[in-house]
Amino acid sequence: MPAVPNGFSVAITASGNENVIALDGTITPPEQAMDVDVTFIVTKDGKSATKVITIAVPAKTATVEMVADALTVTPPEKDAVKLEMPVVPEGFSVALTASGNINVIALDGTIIPPSEVTSVELTFTVTKDGKSASKVITVTVPSRTMTVEEVADSLTVTMPGKNETKLTMPEVPEGFSIAIKSTSNENIIALDGTIVPQDKVADVDVTFIVTSVADETVSAEKTITVRVPAKTGNPPVDPDDKKDILINKGDGTTPPTEIQGIFSKDAVLNVAVIPVENDTYKALEAKMAEGMEALGAYEVSVTGEAQGSFILTFQVGEKHNGRDAIVYHMKEDGEIEAKETVVKDGKITITIDSLSPFMITVASAGEEPAKPSEPTKPSDPTKPLNPSKVPSGQNHTVKTGDDSPFIMLFIICLLAGGTTVLIIWKKKRL
């Protein structure tokens, strides 16, 4: 408190910040230095006077714990390669002592921008005069800017629905553009994405080109097979001008096939092999149940008008008779359904609502049948089986694999023949 002459008294009557300087003169050092206006009153013999004095209060002395607790980190910007370290007061030092992912943020603060947004827990340690304290801060590192090759490789296409006339283009990140460079059939999918649905399902290879907006000389391509569903709305088949069954005899690479339904008289059943390297074949094969073997995959279609559901029959050969069979059917939307049946008369028959790719599979050949048990043999090979042990009304038949009766018969015949020869020879001598 200020000093006053004898006979006078002084006191604090007001403080601009009682949390720092209280009315009783107690000082609570603040986190940061500040000025506080304090009003003093001087009194003597019932008279008084006041004066306001501004007092500069220094910041309290920081500890390593206080400094560590106050640490903050500025989040790195996209494609940044160095972490901005936290700021500490003079006399203190701070270091990065641990990283939850050193492949993204190394201990020297180097940032390796990841392919996707990544959060990394970092441990910072504050040190002063041999004392230290730590704080863990989670830092979010933005995904790096993708290359055109990476963008192209990640492209996917939403397959068009029935009667759609415009292809939905794949989305690309900001900073890139995309266009159709070419298609395998521009009459079905044009370069501007226009779709012209056909009478039957069509697969069109579409090549997309991705270009960097910043440098249009940098680009990459990807080809995606787009399946265009058959158009709907065909006129119904004239009941007076129709066929009930179509037959395709096969060409050696395809099985004889027939389909029952309602077709126009000019309708033709088409069956074509789907090569094993084709994506459709691989998709069907991936659905194949364990223990089944594929006999082939075929694109089945009808040229002409057709309506209703159909009964489809493939001839696979009588050697498969009795085997379980599953026909996998890829619908127009890409869904694959399984039709279970059994091979009968060398044929596999299923009921379907639409045509498209099919894979025919049958159960793999089973294990060899168990060997029959060994037949019972008489204890004395010279005696036949006891007839009394043969059930009444049944003929006794020698079981396959038991040669002892035949051996005995052979010996008896041989002895009888030898006796006859001996008798004849003796008569001749007489």
What can you tell me about this protein's structure?
The chain has 430 residues and is mainly β. 11% of the residues lie in helices and 37% in strands. The strands form 5 sheets. The chain has a 5-stranded antiparallel beta sheet with strand order 12-13-18-15-16, covered by helices on one side. Strand 10 and strand 11 form a beta hairpin. The chain is rod-shaped.
What portion of residues is helical? 10-25%
Q: How widely separated are the two ends? A: 173 Å
Give the beta-strand count: 18
**Rg value:** 48 Å
Please tag this protein with its features.
430 residues; mainly beta; five-stranded antiparallel β-sheet; 11% helix
Describe this structure in a few short sentences.
This protein is mainly beta and 430 residues long. The protein contains four helices and 18 strands. The longest helix has 26 residues.
What's the layout of helices and strands?
Layout: E1 9-15, E2 34-44, E3 47-57, H1 64-69, E4 93-99, E5 118-128, E6 131-141, H2 148-153, E7 176-183, E8 202-212, E9 219-228, E10 242-248, E11 257-264, E12 268-273, H3 279-286, E13 292-303, E14 306-315, E15 324-330, E16 336-342, E17 347-352, E18 357-363, H4 404-429
Antiparallel strand pairs: 1-2, 2-3, 4-5, 5-6, 7-8, 8-9, 10-11, 11-14, 12-13, 13-18, 14-17, 15-16, 15-18
